Amino acid sequence: MSKKKRKYCPYCSKPVIIKNEGNILREYCPNCNSYFYDNPLPVVSAIITKERGILLVKRRYEPFKDQWCLPSGFAETGETIHEACLREVKEETGIEGFVTGLIDADSTENYFYGDLIFHTFEVEQIGGVIQAGDDAKEIKFFSIYELPVLAFHSNKKAIDIFIKNKSEYWAIFDSFSYSVSEVKIKKHKTNFLSNKLIEVIENNIIYIAGLWIQNVKTNKSTPGYHSLSEDILQNRFLTDTQNYIKWLSGQLTGKEMRQYYRELGARRRKQGHSISELLSALSLIRKHIWEFALTQGMWQKTIDIYRTLELERRMMLFFDKATYYVCKGFENHNE
Question: Which is catalytic among the residues 138, 199, 256, 291?
């Protein structure tokens, strides 16, 4: 079934013909001397989300009966395009909503309705109860990773644009939420924004070690390190930094970290270091890793800024724990 063509004039009932107007063939009534303009029909669709799910409607009627789509419908005369969107949302899902923004406007040709213009908006629920309306067999939130085949290509296009626009925000949100928990660090070790920076640090670890060695051999806060050979200092730096990288990737457990740094504190005390210079040396490791990260051009985009800040957050969590365990080991060196 396709959209029916006009055969007779709706005003005088005489047959219509096809006539050229401005290089466009239009239906024309010779008796009324009137052209008929078939403009695209405005359609509204709404993207309503819950966590990472998008609300879809299973169509009760043709066309595309029993297929899934966004809450959608035609705009009516006398209402704004926003009002049309919210009306359709209310009728099909029971949700009272608020339009937060336009996602996409798309022109398409439909075999049933003819030329359409889809306006897809993001809508936030502000009231109502979610329930299927008369035109819907079922409504359901689908994960963005498990969306069904959609009835309208314009719906799929709009959802793809929506997901692309949100992907950076979701990556930032996920990465920051994971970075405060050792359990989440281990579970989501491949999902951190700052992993890119960690790779750069790992690839330049000898260079960073050289900067740290120069610092601890001259710094007033680390006098016990001034007489040590560069080989010994480099080995200390590499061990601590590699532990940090292993912890970030989930390869070093909390128990292993606790044991290593408690033993380190006890060992440094036996070697004659003071607790203040031991903590200063650890602090300088953190400083040189951080300063190197800041030189890697990570300020071009918003996500780059968050990547760098997330690294700082993860460093703080690691070195705070390392400092605590070193102090405990230093205090209990005879245990």
Answer: 138
